Amino acid sequence: MAEPSTDPPAYIAIARKWRPQTLEEMSGQAHVTRTLKNALTSGRLHHAFLFTGARGVGKTTAARAFARALQCAKGPTPTPCGECGPCRDILAGISPDVVEIDGASNNSVDDIRNLRDGVRYLPAASRFRVYVIDEVHMLSKGAFNALLKTLEEPPPHVKFIFATTEVNKIPETILSRVQRFDFKRIPANVVAQRLRKICDAEGVTISDAALQMVARAGEGSMRDAQSLLDQVISFGGASSDDKQVADILGLVDRKYLYEMLRGVLQAEPLRCLESIESVHDNGYELAQFTVELLELVRNATIATLSEGARRFLDVSEEEKAILLDLTSGVPAEQLSRTFQVLLDVHDQVSRSTRPRLILEMAVARLVAIRPAQPVGALVDRLVDLERRMRGQGVAAPRGRDPEGERR
Predict the structure, then answer these.
(1) Is the pLDDT of residue 314 over 60?
(2) CB under 8 Å to 377, separation ≥6 — which residues?
(3) 43, 114, 256, 363: which has the fewest Cβ within 10 Å?
(4) In whole angstroms, what separates CA 358 from the centre of its chain?
């Protein structure tokens, strides 16, 4: 009798374990999921769909969820039951009627001919035969041509779902035969909310500010952010503080960024120089420091514009409160000028062999920035000065008086 296996169960990455199973569970793509759900409800189902967008924004996930919605025994329905045979088979990846094809490795004319031959057969156990072709832009020109006729007049039991990151490489003849859905990059706040649900379910303790850092590092990709969260958990275990998360992501500790900005806005060069010294001594790249400082000044500027503009801040509520306190009484125009100076400094720092020297010398420029006075106020002061000079019998400069008359 064989001994029972003592090997630990295989680990499933967060991005796979927490992949949405239905259109309803998807985050950040409401414009896509709403249209697909309406089509399922009304029965107005096109025969070919194209999902396009950046990596990790949910194209393949949406294709699989849509396939389940089409094949569910209670459907087509926006809310598949998850219990019938087609639902279980698709979840397990063993459905004979949902065929996933990698366009990069199946891109020849012969591959498409085999697909075209299979299209003729009725579904084995479901309502449709669904073909999901990932990275469809990798098909050769001949393969696209071989697909055209089938795509234009497919049998009623066939549905095509294409996914691509490079829609510009797909021929117009194909684009004109599909319903196109453009997936957007997912906002950092939406990504952070999803990461919070995952952490709560996994029993992992990470602050909202740290999750915002992970979400921003994902740059709009849910999959990238979840992979980074996996890395953070592997390093810190069930509990990771903000500094650990920043170190893992290669980010600068936020306290140094805020100290630098505080020194700039309050004209305290010593505070700025101490921040630069701390960043340098802790081994952070100064070019990365200036990049994150630019982002912080951008957030500070938006915080001062209006209450409505603050919804564009990709920061936690705690950090938003710090920003509002720091920028109280600071005009947006001063922050805008600070951003322009920093942009020039970042360009020099990123190219210099002595970045610390460049950044320290830039402190003099940064702390000297003050709000520009309105032109109207300057004119009023000049007029007042001229009147006082006339009252004292001093000849006023030649030119035009406020009424525009030549003297």
Answers:
(1) yes
(2) none
(3) 43
(4) 31
